[in-house]
Specification:
The protein has 2 domains: 201 residues, 3-Layer(aba) Sandwich (Rossmann fold); 100 residues, Magnesium chelatase subunit I, C-Terminal domain (Helicase, Ruva Protein, domain 3, Orthogonal Bundle). 45% of the residues lie in helices and 17% in strands. It is built from 13 helices and 13 strands. The strands form 5 sheets. The chain has a 5-stranded parallel β-sheet. A two-stranded parallel sheet has the order 2-11. Strands 4-5 form a two-stranded antiparallel ribbon.
Length: 324
């Protein structure tokens, strides 16, 4: 077990290094995407234009020996353009299924909020059921099947906001921030180097390796006290007054669902595994709490009026709930 874990960490380190050759910085986002792949969870990535969201996902996919498809969401996209459709065969007088681009291990749903509700629902249904029905036949999606969706938070013209119930399907919502001055300087030096050639990404992580490492991550121990801590954090989003946070009661219309409890536990286990531990500590839960819960809080108009984002509310909840 120890030898297998060390080999897994070696492979993950090589994967991070390979991605880092192309994408400067964003180490925290890379770790979260690795967690999503290990637990087979879907991720919503939000960030301003030009922060290398698409480049990051494409580079990560290139380092994985897995099938990858990019779907550029547009207002004229149809559900069949994603899931597939039936094509009539005149010779055999039959309808044959033509599978859509959703049948891949890693899906990049670029600018998901640019597609109308029907298209978003078709993708999110596939994410939840992990299968697609075309005609009267159901087709299982490959394993692993991970969707990484991107959206731009500042553009509203020609976009369709994701409903809260559908956003809950994403195990994490990641925010891509501006790089530091040092990282941006390294980026500038890399891309202005006249001797630099196109950087090719080597495949270092195969499907069998993903399955093996995912089993190791799933075997990380979660103590009962950690489980109670996770449940209390989620319950504090629903009934903040019970946790000495009465001021938050008018700011949260609806708290996180039980799906958030399970997601927080799975993500914390994978975070502990990436940290080299075989057990979860409270710091693992705290480290991923914002990513798992920020998109699951439905805030009230009072929160918008007071300019109180979900992350600040979660800061108060994390400070109020007793750590085991």
């Amino acid at each position: 077990m120890q030898e297998a874990t060390e080999q897994a960490h070696e492979t993950l380190a090589r994967l991070r290094a390979e991605v880092g050759r192309v994408v400067i910085g964003q180490d925290a986002i890379v770790n979260r995407l690795l967690i999503a792949i290990l637990i087979r969870g879907h991720v919503l990535v939000e960030g301003l234009p030009g922060l290398a969201k698409t480049l990051l996902v494409k580079t990560l996919a290139s380092a994985l020996d897995a099938t990858f498809k990019r779907i550029q969401f547009t207002p004229d996209l149809l559900p069949a353009d994603i899931t597939g459709t039936q094509i009539f065969d005149p010779a055999g007088r039959t309808f044959n299924a033509r599978l859509g681009p959703v049948f891949a291990n890693l899906i990049l749903a670029d600018e998901i909020n640019r597609a109308p509700a029907k298209v978003q629902s078709a993708l999110l249904e596939a994410m939840q059921e992990r299968q697609v029905t075309i005609g009267d036949q159901s087709y299982a999606l490959p394993d692993p099947f991970v969707v990484i969706a991107t959206q731009n938070p500042i553009e509203h013209e020609g976009t369709y906001a994701l409903p809260e119930a559908q956003v809950d399907r994403f195990v994490m919502k990641l925010k891509v921030e501006y790089p530091s001055a040092e990282e941006e300087l390294r980026m500038l030096g890399l891309y202005l180097d006249p001797t630099r050639e196109s950087v090719g990404v080597q495949r270092v992580f195969g499907i069998d390796e993903i399955h093996r490492v995912a089993k190791l991550a799933a075997s990380v121990h979660t103590d009962e006290r950690i489980g109670r801590y996770i449940v209390q954090l989620v319950n504090a989003t629903r009934r903040p007054a019970d946790f000495r946070l009465p001021s938050l009661a008018n700011l949260i219309s609806f708290g996180a669902s039980p799906r958030a409890t399970l997601a927080l536990a799975h993500v914390a286990k994978a975070h502990a595994f990436l940290g080299g531990r075989t057990y979860v500590v409270p710091e693992d839960v705290k480290a991923v709490a914002h990513d798992v819960l920020r998109h699951r809080l439905v805030l009230s108009y009072e929160a918008a009026a007071e300019q109180m984002p979900a992350d600040r509310i979660l800061d108060q909840i994390l400070g109020a709930v007793a750590v085991p």
